[in-house]
Amino acid sequence: MTTPTPIHRAPDSPALRQALALAGVFQAASLVDELARTGQVDTRAWETLIEATVDTNPASFEAIYGGHPNNLRRGLETLEALVGRKQANPVVLRYGFSILLVMNKLRTNDAMMDTLGQHLGRIQGQAEHFGTTHENVIASLGEAYQETISTFKTRIVVQGDPSLLQSRMMPERVRACLLSGVRFGLLWHQQGGRRWKLVFQRKALRRALDSLG
């Protein structure tokens, strides 16, 4: 038997919570880039994102990302690049900031938020029946994104291998990933995250990342 991953209680610090939520945004951005270029994806990172998107009523903050910061490791590594400690992938950063841009449009559009909530309510039923990462669930998440966020004039253009991007289930997987990024973007905003803070409060973000180890 494998030992279950211990639950790490979420930090009380607003900066730490913002860092974890932002890690979810950039984890989604990283996986979109990986899918578009290789067609493959890190399983743990992928499952963390999809489960967070399907579960719209988590028991706690830490439950959103599966109870352990390591589930957001890909996103945390991208944040390290954002604060200047590692080489940044400009494509991943562009996707991440684009996700935050469409998140801001979504959160002020009550009708679209309601529509998206209705989609996710139905998808939860699917997930209970098939399993969270079943392709039927992924297809429904992709459809939810396409019918809501994808209708904004500001759209996220994904670059990659054209043959991969057109392959079976790939558009749905990419859209599901983008939707998960928006979900974490909304969480980041709820925790007090703002774009200007990424420019003027990088030291606070650095300290938050340091405390996560």
TrEMBL record:
<keyword id="KW-0963">Cytoplasm</keyword>
<dbReference type="GO" id="GO:0005886">
    <property type="term" value="C:plasma membrane"/>
</dbReference>
<dbReference type="GO" id="GO:0005737">
    <property type="term" value="C:cytoplasm"/>
</dbReference>
<comment type="similarity">
    <text>Belongs to the HflD family.</text>
</comment>
<dbReference type="InterPro" id="IPR035932">
    <property type="entry name" value="HflD-like_sf"/>
</dbReference>
<dbReference type="InterPro" id="IPR007451">
    <property type="entry name" value="HflD"/>
</dbReference>
<keyword id="KW-0472">Membrane</keyword>
<protein>
    <recommendedName>
        <fullName>High frequency lysogenization protein HflD homolog</fullName>
    </recommendedName>
</protein>
<keyword id="KW-1003">Cell membrane</keyword>
<dbReference type="Pfam" id="PF04356">
    <property type="entry name" value="DUF489"/>
</dbReference>
